[in-house]
């Protein structure tokens, strides 16, 4: 697995850890393979395999033959045979594990598709490769402008320059067949390079660009998934999922690949269940299927004429009713076989922190309009009006009697 930005680094230095360590997911490149045969020695008399795996931009990998028996290890930058010219890549795997990877991808050891390694990349090769990689974003931007001017209905998703800078591969997606002969001529004349157009699917495009899925992790297609199989809505129906395109679709716009992960488990569990179109015959009427819970092994049925109530039946009870119906013996009613719901005691925990609700601050506070008014108006001491020395009235509050004074003392 990899960081999302590791594969786009020009100098093959991870942008996340900057070669100071490994990623938490186990590697610093897309679709990396752990060489579990690296510490094992070959049998006596057997020569090591002279084929290595070389990684290019966005996890693109190919096999190359080391005809000159160069001392190559994982992480070395090498110059390999291109079409035409040469390309620059990073060695991602060596040793006997190459045979397993070639068999997995359907490449024979003596195949003509396995090209050769020229040499270890020199500093001049790396400088030319770096300059070519820096032009990819500008080339993609201008290529989209040319597409808009020509009015071609296709999406230019990525551009990859060859290591020598003489060739560029334009990756695009399109719904229909596209005539891009004029586009190739315009691109070749604008950038003065050899142009190769390569169409990719929507899933391959998402794998090349990368991203984070709704589960919070990196996309499976950009980290470890290499076999991009077709996914249809039947997988969602078997798993009793709601056919909501917004929830079932991934970043590529198609159904998520993870719908196939648990499909075999659901198919094994459904092998014991009867068909959903089978009607249960009772004396009160025919009952039809409504829904099921696969792992709890319960089903819901209701009467055709009265659909107000659903009856929860176990799988064993449904099979028993079907066996009786095969012998033309209808059961009395579904009420006799209804599964009683056992209510479990829910353990509640006290709130030791003191926070009653997480949304307690969402509701606005109610202002207390009568906060400053006295609650008991009768208890309030009424002021009395007296006439002052200058003839003007003044308010003087009635003072309570001094209980501490001696009552027998004359004032």
Taken in chain order, the helices and strands follow as EEEEHEHHEEHEHHHHHEEEEHEE
What structural class should be given to the helix and strand makeup?
alpha+beta
Task: State the distance separating the first and last CA atoms.
Answer: 101 Å
CATH topology of the domain at 131-205: GMP Synthetase, Chain A, domain 3
Superfamily at the CATH H level of the domain at 131-205? K homology (KH) domain
The total beta strand count reads: 14
Which stretches are low in confidence, meaning pLDDT under 50 for 5 or more residues running? 1-5, 21-27
| Structural Rg | 39 Å
Shape: elongated
In what order do the strands lie side by side in the largest sheet?
1-2-5-3-4
Mean pLDDT: 81
Strand residue content: 15-25%
How many separate helices? 10
Q: At CATH's second level, what is the architecture of the domain at 131-205?
A: 2-Layer Sandwich
Please outline the major beta sheet. Answer: 5 strands, mixed, barrel
